[in-house]
Amino acid sequence: MPVLVMKFGGTSVANPDRIRRAAKRVGVEVAKGYDVIVIVSAMSGKTNELVGWVNETSPLYDAREYDAVVSSGENVTAGLMALTLQEMDIPARSWQGWQVPVKTTSAHASARIEDIPPANIEAKFAEGMRVAVVAGFQGISPEGRITTLGRGGSDTTAVAFAAAFKAERCDIYTDVDGVYTTDPRISSKARKLDKIAFEEMLELASLGAKVLQTRSVELAMRYKVKLRVLSSFEEQSDDAGTLVCDEEEVMENRPVSGIAYSRDEAKMTLLSVADRPGIAAAIFGPLSEAGINVDMIIQNIAEDGRTDMTFSCPVDQVKRAEKAMENAKESGEINYHNLVADTDVAKVSAVGIGMRSQSGVAATMFKTLSDEGINIKVIATSEIKISVLIDRKYMELAVQALHDAFELEKQA
Ligand code: ADP
Ligand code: ASP
Ligand code: MG
To answer: Which domain holds residue 353?
Structure first.
């Protein structure tokens, strides 16, 4: 029988009632003749609560124990979903990541899926089981420890299963009815897209649009998984939601197709480091070893052989970054006067594959922000995106102003 993957996010499994609603959607697909793999997230808010407990207990925690704790939310919803389906007389059982097994790297808290042998689940399908409910977000390392895939990782679990089982489609059920030109919670003018190109979705996701985890889009692109985002709260037709697909299938042609933001950024500046060959390596090597996701980097103009180095990273990594720099200073690898952390910044980005061929996007973006009196602290560009770091208090204003400036509420 053809296989379908259906993933339900946190708000879609927030309580037993919502789980019943999701299970009914699964029932519809089972009735159509699909064997279904259901991937569930933890109940909404649960993972945040678990992360909070870990931080409270141990701020510079052992990531293996972090994973042991934060993976537990999905175990609960997987079991409850299987029970709900059984109550509906649909043969179902739950699987934790290690039982499948979902084999991952040992990069705890941000592990990558390496392999999902389908044999165990396929054997159950062959015996008449119709739904395999799998706990998202988690796997097992070569050392036999539980791993997690980074926040939002259940999306990646879903796409990886779709690839491993050659599923007909991977449906991501969430609390919005598709991918929008920007987060519909920030701009009421956000417009739902029927289709979006993999590359644009990849860029939007990596710049903060959390509707899909970045890695899930990468996998879908690589393994040609038919990926759809849709609402678990509405009756669904076969063409509901947003299809993430190849560039050629998308009709719209405009320089910018979406605005993304990332609220929890920090800007770190090392004051007065020696301006010498190898200084960047001496700074960013230890940061990388400490697992810091450095994003934007600027090296300022040097004076008297000293310079300032600025970089951005997620705000929850500031403590680790400071520690890594202090250690590097103590061991004599680098020398700096002071490390200043600005933890009140956010990143706003304009994304579009049309930028490759159309110029003027940066100019429009900077003019729009300047008209709103918003100061730009750092700029980064690539072929299909422009990002700026600004004070967090202006983030929503910036998103709305840019959405207006690029006329994204209108169909191109
Ligand atoms: P889930 O719990 O189902 O995984 P998430 O909260 O991870 O859901 O992702 C869905 C959320 O992503 C939406 O509620 C929305 O606020 C946010 N979002 C951000 N950018 C976008 C966008 N461009 N289109 C749709 N949703 C977006
Ligand atoms: N529960 C995890 C998180 O909140 C994984 C997910 O929901 O995708 O990040
Ligand atoms: Mg999510």
So the answer is: 259-405
